[in-house]
Design brief:
- It is a single chain.
- Strand 2 and strand 3 form a beta hairpin.
- Helix content is 37%, strand content 17%.
């Protein structure tokens, strides 16, 4: 069985406004060892995007090496043997990530805590699938055409807290397991920013659009360009201000002695399905998800800037030599990665212009109200108090932003 793959991540409006890089990273591959991995950097950490990208590289290298431990855990017919080896493989992979963190922290002169991130990953074998989840976000599987949440977000003591991959991670916070692969036809990993629209946090109900995305990935009509376009659609904002990342694997059955291709073939852009057809009705919203006024989802999509998926060339770079550079050139919009309108491009390139629109509108409204107040006083009408002016300006600003 061959697995088609696609993954991408984009920065949210908040990071664009503050001039910060995307802290999400995602990577997926269908051959030779199928896997997907996604990491969401801790928002309060200074360089968590480095740790997130490094973790994706570690998982890619681990899957690419295809060692004896990995083969015996995922491919061996003895299920009892696989169950015995699974804790060893999980601990080894986690320690590999922490070791990479320590090396990067030393090169960048940072404490390792500044590289912390969440982690969602799945490794596919001939008989079993291994998965690991630390922190928020969601892992979703498709079995016999039905979607189900394999692992949901883990919260901390408060609602807006979660756990991260780091030196202080507790063993019970590293969730994971082995699942038989015979009935699994699709897997998706998403950061909390993407899960906010795709999975209902109250009842774990999944938007039907995710099944359609998996089907399009399976058919070869939904590649990296289409994923970036989907993640930058207008329906995500203003509710979702966070970075968004999504990685998908979709099974393609092979018959006879047919060999799967070495890498998935990227389809032409004209063959891409419309995201409106993928998510009918209110696009992108799982039942029960937050909606805008009248069921609409206003707001502009994020920039097509992204950090993943990483290529084989990226994984061959010595760790730390490129990741520690303090420039954000890698996050600039690339015309070949997504198709955006001229309005989106201007706003993404100069986000301050979009914010300035609200400020200018409020200033004009305040000037008109001030002129009216002055004329009212000169004509003997009751003067407008400063409190009323302030309330009116606040109301106008709120309406403009909505």
């Amino acid at each position: 069985m061959y697995w088609a793959s696609v993954a991408a991540s984009v920065p949210g409006r908040r990071h664009l406004r503050e001039g910060l890089p995307c802290q999400d990273a995602a990577l997926a591959a269908g051959a030779p060892r199928s896997f997907l991995v996604l990491a969401d950097g801790r928002g309060s950490a200074r360089r968590s995007e480095i740790g997130a990208e490094a973790a994706c590289r570690v998982v890619a290298e681990f899957a690419g090496a295809n060692g004896v431990l990995l083969q015996d855990t995922l491919d061996h017919p003895d299920h009892e043997r696989a169950g015995t080896l699974w804790p060893l493989m999980k601990d080894l992979l986690f320690q590999m990530i922490l070791t990479r963190h320590r090396g990067l922290a030393e090169r960048c002169s940072l404490p390792p805590a500044e590289l912390e991130h969440t982690l969602l990953m799945a490794l596919i074998g001939e008989r079993r699938m291994a998965w690991v989840h630390v922190g928020d976000g969601a892992l979703v599987v498709e079995q016999n055409g039905e979607l189900a949440v394999l692992s949901g977000p883990e919260r901390g003591e408060f609602a807006n807290q979660t756990c991260f991959v780091g030196e202080k991670t507790k063993a019970q916070q590293i969730r994971g397991g082995l699942s038989l692969i015979d009935k699994v036809t699709g897997i998706a990993a998403m950061s909390d920013g993407a899960a906010e629209r795709l999975v209902n946090s109250q009842n774990n109900q999944i938007t039907p659009g995710l099944a359609k995305i998996m089907q399009c990935v399976r058919e070869g009509s939904f590649g990296r360009r289409e994923m970036l376009r989907f993640l930058t659609e207008t329906f995500w904002e203003p509710e979702v201000q966070d970075d968004r990342a999504l990685a998908v694997l979709a099974a393609q059955p092979t018959t006879g002695r047919e060999k799967p291709p070495a890498k998935p073939v990227s389809p032409p852009a004209t063959a891409a399905p419309s995201t409106a057809s993928i998510l009918p009705g209110v696009p992108g919203a799982a039942p029960g998800a937050r909606e805008g006024r009248g069921g609409e989802m206003p707001g502009l999509g994020s920039s097509p800037r992204e950090t993943g998926p990483l290529t084989a060339t990226d994984s061959e770079d010595p760790p730390g030599e490129t990741l520690c550079q303090s420039n954000f050139s890698r996050y600039r919009p690339v015309a070949d990665n997504a198709v955006v309108s001229w309005r989106q491009y201007i706003i993404h390139a100069f986000p301050c212009l979009w914010e300035f629109k609200y400020i200018l509108s409020a200033l004009i409204a305040g000037l008109l109200i001030g002129i009216f107040a002055g004329r009212s006083a000169n004509l003997g009408y009751p003067a407008i108090s400063p409190e009323v002016l302030a309330q009116t300006l606040e109301l106008l600003d709120r309406e403009l932003r909505n």
